[in-house]
Write a structure and sequence with these properties.
It is a single chain. The protein is α+β, with helices and mostly antiparallel strands. The protein folds into 2 domains: 2-141, Deoxyribonuclease I, Chain A; 158-205, no CATH class. 32% of the residues lie in helices and 20% in strands. It has helices at 25-38, 66-78, 114-119, 164-175, 183-205, and strands spanning 2-3, 10-17, 43-48, 58-59, 81-83, 93-94, 104-105, 108-113, 124-128, 137-141. The strands form 3 sheets. The chain has a 5-stranded mixed sheet. Strand 9 (124-128) and strand 10 (137-141) form a beta hairpin. Helix 1 (25-38) runs parallel beside helix 2 and helix 4 packs antiparallel against helix 5. The longest helix is centred in the C-terminal third of the chain and has 23 residues, at 183-205. The model has no long low-confidence stretch (mean pLDDT 87).
């Protein structure tokens, strides 16, 4: 329960995680239904629901069960939620595989009731790609644009070595540096590789699912 210090506006925030096992996901919807019955105040809910509302929120893999999606939609309607939409990539999760095995889903979202949206009129949700995770970060803000300057820790993904262009990216970045024989040169070239691999992962690996 949150009370705005400036005007006393009272609202509720729920961080939600849908059950990862399909046959137990109904328990998640029952929990949301229970939470809905407890209070009647403006409500904001976001997180990884592990479910989609329509096939437009999925790319690759087999068709999603209509019954699964309908169950999610029913509880969304029951709670009086509106989807806040998003800016950025259409999907928030990727199975990190390639070719015909690649699957992308919009599992993460922000939902709110009409009376919450009536108070926070300028709110926007951004999908921010994080190279250290198979999920996007959800940034909810009333600012005009997200602050994306936060430095994130770099992780080398084992799946990258399966691609021939990964070696090419590393070689090109390393060879573009100088004084590689010194500790400073090695550190500089490693940083070049980090930047090149991060950009390659975001622009080629994450988005190239077609």
């Amino acid at each position: 329960m949150i009370t705005e210090a400036s005007n006393g506006f009272l609202w509720r925030f729920t961080g939600f995680y849908g059950h990862p096992k399909t046959h137990l996901r109904e328990e998640s919807w029952k929990l949301l239904s229970l939470l809905n019955s407890q209070f009647n105040i403006p409500w904001f809910c976001c997180g990884d629901f592990n479910e989609i509302l329509s096939m437009n929120e999925k790319a690759g893999g087999v068709l999603r069960s209509q019954c699964q999606m309908d169950s999610f939609r029913q509880v969304v309607n029951l709670c009086g939620y509106k989807d806040l939409g998003y800016c950025g990539p259409d999907f928030t999760w990727c199975n990190m595989k390639e070719g015909c095995d690649r699957i992308l889903l919009r599992l993460d979202r922000a939902l709110a009731t009409s009376n919450w949206l009536g108070h926070f009129k300028e709110v926007k949700v951004y999908h921010l790609v994080d190279t250290t995770s198979d999920h996007c970060i959800l940034l909810t803000t009333n600012s005009s644009s997200p602050d994306c300057k936060r430095k994130r820790r770099f992780h080398f993904e084992a799946m990258w070595v399966k691609r021939k262009d990964c070696r090419e990216i590393i070689q090109e970045a390393w060879n573009s540096g100088t004084f590689a024989a010194t500790p400073e040169g090695v550190a500089s070239n490693l940083q070049r590789c980090e930047v090149a691999l991060t950009n390659w992962n975001q622009n080629v690996i994450y988005y190239n699912y077609g």
